[in-house]
Design a protein that fits this description.
Layout lengths: L1 E6 L3 H4 L3 H11 L4 E6 L10 E3 L2 E5 L8 H10 L5 E4 L4 H13 L2 E6 L8 H4 L2 H14 L4 E4 L10 E3 L6 H4 L10 E5 L8 H10 L4 E5 L5 H7 L4 E5 L3 H8 L4 E3 L9 H8 L4 E2 L16 H11 L2 H13 L2
Parallel strand pairs: 1-2, 1-5, 2-4, 5-6, 6-7, 7-8, 9-10, 9-12, 10-11, 12-13
Antiparallel strand pairs: 3-4
Length: 317
């Protein structure tokens, strides 16, 4: 089976998010060939890369308005069985157009709870427009991949949670007390970090760490308490090290698709405090001990099985 993924994760080429890059390399092993087309700007100076049967192609567009047309130009010269758009918005629209122009089956992936709660569409006018764009694009998908059962959209939908390298993060619950609470989150409205700050304000003797970067950094810097520290963007080795020196992981998001960082924290042996969103109730069950939860992760959410779950969903279109 020859497949194209369309997305905007430039870290697959740059290596900024090593876990994402490695995940795509693993996915490629399940196909005859996997081509990933990444929306990128010419100024980013990204180069095409081939790793075995994985081919990663940046669009190198002059501006963002040309992402779709440049993607279609690339697809025109390829012969594949299926396109999978990695979000329902711009990548989704590129997939819809390619489906009808080149007569290729289309899968659209939904990695966040964009449609089940009002939070996403109410965050901004931009999100409101994207909400309806996503709804429109999903009408033309031959199948929809979601990452949590609570997201299910229509009859042609299948569930395949994000595959996590549990072995990399694996560890027992810590005995030593570090007086440190951690969250891993993009600095955006979705993550509701003011709630994390409010928690920090109630425990001034504890250290609260925020791992991640984002468009809200300047605003959040001005409102955080003195015991909250921004660690910036970290690779997974650095995140594992921070987990090893923390007592709890806290997620304060308004909405999530799955909650990959929560799974990683639990694999590392950290208790997780989170709202009833994403993987809550599925991979993370209220009242379970760390040991019970880690056993559940091993049984139902190991990386190989979740990858196979996604691949089977694509092959059954």
């Amino acid at each position: 089976m020859k497949v194209i993924f369309i997305g905007n994760d430039t870290s697959i080429l740059t290596g900024a998010n090593g876990d994402s890059r490695l995940r795509q390399i693993e996915y490629a092993k399940y196909f005859d060939s996997l081509i990933i087309i990444i929306f990128s700007l010419k100024k980013d100076n990204l180069k095409e890369e081939v790793i075995g049967n994985l081919r990663i192609i940046p669009t190198n567009s002059i501006n963002r308005w040309l992402f779709i047309s440049d993607t279609l130009k690339i697809i025109k010269n390829l012969h594949v069985d299926l396109i999978s758009s990695q979000d329902p918005f711009i990548a989704g629209l590129a997939g819809v157009l390619a489906k009808f122009i080149f007569k290729i089956k289309l899968n659209i992936q939904v990695h966040n709870d964009f449609f089940g709660t009002p939070y996403f569409r109410n965050e901004s006018l931009f999100n409101y427009i994207f909400y309806w764009l996503g709804k429109f694009n999903l009408l033309f998908a031959d199948s929809v991949r979601v990452v949590s059962p609570r997201q299910k959209i229509g009859k042609n939908c299948f569930v395949a949670p994000v595959a996590t390298d549990l072995d990399f993060f694996w560890g027992k619950r810590h005995i030593k007390i570090f007086n440190q609470i951690v969250t891993v989150a993009r600095l955006s409205k979705q993550k509701n970090l003011p709630l994390f700050f409010d928690l920090a304000g109630h425990f001034p003797n504890l250290r609260f760490i925020v791992v991640g970067e984002g468009e809200e950094r300047n605003r959040l810097e001005k409102m955080k308490p003195e015991n909250v520290f921004f660690a910036g963007q970290k690779n997974r080795k650095e995140i594992k090290e921070i987990f090893s020196k923390s007592d709890f992981f806290v997620l304060t998001s308004n909405y999530e698709g799955w909650g990959l960082s929560c799974i990683e924290a639990l694999a590392a042996g950290l208790p997780v405090i989170m709202p009833d969103i994403g993987c809550a109730g599925e991979a993370i069950v209220d009242g379970m001990t760390i040991e019970e939860t880690q056993k559940l992760l091993r049984e139902k959410y190991n990386q190989k099985d979740l990858m196979q779950q996604f691949i089977n969903g694509l092959k059954n279109i």
